[in-house]
Amino acid sequence: MLSPSMISNGKMTNKIAFITGSSGQDGILLSQLLLSREYTVVALTRSDPTSLRKIIGEHEKLITKKVKSYFYAALKEIFTEHQPDELYHLAAQSDSSGVENLSEDYLLANAQSPIDCLRLVCEIHPDCKVFLALSSEMFEKSSKIFDESSTINPSNPYGAAKAYVYSVAKLIREKSNIFIVCGILFSHESIYRKNTFLSKKIAAGVANIVQGKTDSLTLHNLSGERDWSSAEDFVSAMQLSMNLDQADDYVFASGVLRTVEDFCHTAFSHVDLDYQDFVQDEGIIDRSIGCIGNPNKLVNATGWQPQIDFKKMVCQMVDHELNR
């Protein structure tokens, strides 16, 4: 649900925004935010758009389009018809961290489709501003704190695809002066997270235990570390970055490292339970370094002030699962 702060922090407008991946958590929240600011939102999804309308509600400025893909040929006619002022490319397949996933569909979705969106802007409507959702998975995991100047050296196909998009986007921005914001996103969660994500698994697990559907929750590594933020705060920052005079690269993060155990403790404490009584840790060893993002450049450029802290974010997710 959209917070009052998201509605009041921006100027009203009659702009048109294109959003790919509109059925994901970021797409849903961004659509809500932009509609509240009088944007016309063209929400593109590869799934049934009915579910998006059920969440957002009927809105005269919401245009939902089901597309076969986010490639140039599939989007050219829609893009030409609407001539958007802003394009937010949020679509991605991020469910694999291993080198085993090198399928054509996976690589094209994460590498080619963002480039095709940039091609649409360059060839059809160069005045359209672009936001590309990239990932902290691009960074070399040799240090603890990362910012926009950190070394790019991905360790999985997802990060490699995002790094490729990042390099092409920067080249286009420098050579053609297209307005392209590269948002390097660290972990972020909301009530709209899909079932494949750890945060959703924990929140749903708590609700299932409270409701007597199960008596335990099995996780792989309680000591795993992440820099977690609210997705609602991130989409607000996305919009702020698109209102700047010049496009740039920005790290989106909280700057605070927390463990999976912290997440469990917060989630179970919210319903007056001790996670140690219910969580089974399989103890899979994770030797990766927990990554902290430094959002200072984003904060200084936009004045971004996150409104939802870690505890509130976790509790919102648990409450949502309890009330389903």
CATH class of the domain at 13-185 equals Alpha Beta
Mean pLDDT: 91
**Which shape, going by the Cα principal axes?**
globular
Strand order of the largest sheet: 3-2-1-4-5-7-12
| Number of helical elements | 11
User: What percentage of the residues does DSSP assign to strands (E)?
Assistant: 15-25%
The stretches of 5 or more residues where confidence is low (pLDDT under 50) are: 1-9
Largest β sheet strand count, sense and barrel closure: 7 strands, parallel
List the helices and strands in order: HEHEHEHEHEEHEEHEEEHEEHEEHH
Question: What is the gyration radius calculated from CA atoms?
Answer: 19 Å
> What structural category characterises the helix and strand content?
alpha/beta
- What CATH architecture label of the domain at 13-185 applies? 3-Layer(aba) Sandwich
CATH homologous superfamily annotation of the domain at 13-185: NAD(P)-binding Rossmann-like Domain
